[in-house]
Specification:
alpha+beta, 8-stranded mixed beta sheet, 4-stranded antiparallel beta sheet, 21 strands, 26% strand
Length: 401
């Protein structure tokens, strides 16, 4: 029977032994999903035979229900799980870099980051310069593919997200958009009653209209939606765009490593299978040369998207089996772990089938994209090269001077 432990007068730590052993390779994935088990969880730590949850308060009579939800997550993700074979395409993790401290403390000291809310930061001049440098680097990659530039909205249609099964695959990360109902009494009532309490807006929920749009979780989706229900022009599209993305990660939101609101530059390929895969590979090889010139310590390895628990085991195994996703994982020397800063993705004909995007021969189009997180790139760069510009690669130093 799990025993609550009280490390302080304000929080409780609940220790549980999972009914199903958690494979070591899944500990991180399970730990991240426990953030969505209960609003009272402040942090979670998962080992193969032990789960520790720090709670806002003792759950009291809710303890059995909380335990049941935790065991449900574990069973859904770990029961019958087969360890995926990680394929490594590039391995430069052990490149020598001049810095090994956590850059967040120095960024805060310099006023380079200001947390407006959980996972939402204002960034200062240094970070803005670094992001502009990486944006120019990735934009030059897009230029090599003669990618057509697009601008996409921050809002995204709920109807389109439903067509591509986003609600079942990633419900935990969604960010919803609404507005006050078009009713004079409701608008007057809101203006007189609305106030914030415990960092939250306090108003009756029935004042809000039905959700028709959400904050966009990815850049490439907008292109696919614009191509829906018609043939691909000339059978091929290469596009590029930079945009704000939103993926809620609860207590996993942590410094600049994990943001609710972040920026991505993507190069997007639409066409037949060989066209998409050949371009994805060409982009990877070009970026390998660019990262080598920078001296970045990183690895490119097969990975899976952060599917929700009901879809995780099936979808992760599918992505692994068909090598659909490869992540660029930059080394964070201050904790000897890696951070995904970009990815090379192949969706097969998933979007083509669900959105009725067709090729000239009538078949469903295949899609893929190369995506880079700009804030994460800047953070990983500072984690490896620090704040002394004399230690920076000459190209970055000159750009940011």
């Amino acid at each position: 029977m799990p025993k609550p432990h009280n490390p302080s007068s304000e929080t409780f730590t609940l220790h549980l032994t999972p009914k199903i052993p958690i494979p070591e390779y899944l500990c991180g994935e399970v730990q991240s999903k426990l953030a969505y088990v209960d609003e009272g969880i402040l942090s979670a730590r998962v080992e193969s035979n032990r789960i520790s949850l720090v709670l806002r308060a003792h759950p009291g009579p809710r303890t059995p229900k909380l335990e049941a939800k935790v065991h449900r997550v574990v069973a859904s993700m770990a029961q019958g799980a087969i360890k995926p074979k990680v394929q490594i395409l590039e391995d430069y993790l052990h490149r020598s870099v001049p810095y090994s401290q956590d850059p967040m403390e120095e960024l805060q000291k310099r006023g380079e980051v200001f947390a407006e809310a959980s996972g939402t930061y204002t960034l200062g001049p240094l970070l803005t310069q670094l992001i502009a440098y990486f944006e120019s680097l990735f934009h030059s990659l897009a230029h090599q593919f003669q990618a057509v530039a697009y601008r996409f909205p921050v809002l995204i249609s709920a109807e389109f997200l439903e067509r591509v099964k986003y609600f079942s695959a990633f419900p935990h990360s969604l960010s919803f958009v609404t507005h006050l109902r078009e009713d004079l009494e409701i608008i007057d009532g809101f203006s007189q009653q609305a106030h914030c309490e415990d960092h939250s807006l306090q108003v009756p929920h029935d004042m809000f209209a039905r959700v028709k749009t959400l904050l966009s979780p990815a850049v490439c989706y907008h292109l696919y939606f614009s191509l829906a229900d018609k043939p691909v022009p000339r059978g091929r599209v290469v596009a590029t765009a930079v945009g704000n993305c939103f993926r809620y990660e609860a207590i996993n939101l942590n410094s600049l490593e994990r943001l609710w609101n972040f920026t991505m530059r993507e190069i997007i390929f639409v066409g037949d299978k060989d066209f998409v895969l050949d371009n994805r590979e060409a982009a990877r090889r070009i970026m390998e040369e660019k990262f080598e010139a920078l001296g970045l310590a990183y690895r490119v390895e097969s990975a899976n998207d952060p599917f929700f628990i009901g879809e995780f085991r099936k979808q992760a195994a599918f992505q692994s089996a068909f090598q659909l996703k490869y992540e660029i994982r930059a080394r964070l020397p201050f904790k000897e772990r890696t951070l995904a800063v970009g990815s090379y993705n192949y969706h097969q004909d998933f979007f083509g089938r669900h959105l009725n995007i067709t090729l000239p021969n009538g078949e469903a189009a295949h899609t893929g994209c190369v995506a880079f997180g700009l804030e994460r790139m800047a953070f990983a760069f500072l984690a490896q090269f620090g704040f002394d510009k004399n230690q920076w690669p000459s190209e970055v130093k000159e750009f940011c001077s």
